[in-house]
Amino acid sequence: MKLFLDLEEVLIKDWYDPYCLLGKLDIIKSFCKQHDIKEAILFSAAVWNKEDIEVFNTEIRAELEGILSITLEPLKMDLAFQKICTNSMISIQHAKFVTDIFPINPKRDMFLNHILLEYGKIKDPEEFVLFDDTVQDSEFNQGNIKIIFKNI
Q1: Of 56, 67, 97, 152, which has the fewest Cβ atoms less than 10 A away?
Q2: What tens digit of pLDDT does each residue of 94-114 get?
Q3: SS3 of 31, please?
Q4: Which residues does residue 42 pair with via DSSP β-bridges, in sequence order?
Q5: Predicted TM-score (pTM) of this structure
Q6: Which SS3 state, helix, strand or coil, does residue 92 take?
Q7: In 78-101, which positions are buried (b, 16+ CB within 10 angstroms) versus exposed (e)?
């Protein structure tokens, strides 16, 4: 099982007021213990590029990892977005925001596309879980991939 976490309104209030949301962190920590998860990947537009990752690493990461008792690895969302655009044959000049490609459920649809692009050819069954405040609890299955969305 691979765990992905949104940052704003899930782990912290927001980028500019990054206090920890302890109630939600307790839920995630319990989930990690239950499933023996040691690492999670940040899947957040707040951590869009390498500059944002540097801010996250120096100002936010240590406190969250200490509370959750797991390692957090930020995903370079700008590169993931660019790859989805390229795969969809959409010009990056015409799609500057996730909502330009996925207007209805941007986080859900970007996550789905990211997982299918990155892991679509895996041979062994794998589960991918995303905790996010903008998704509804749901599941998606394709081949050996099971994607689980958890609203928090």
Answers
A1: 97
A2: 545 544 544 445 778 888 888
A3: helix
A4: 5, 74
A5: 0.86
A6: coil
A7: eebbeebbeeeeeeeeebeebeeb
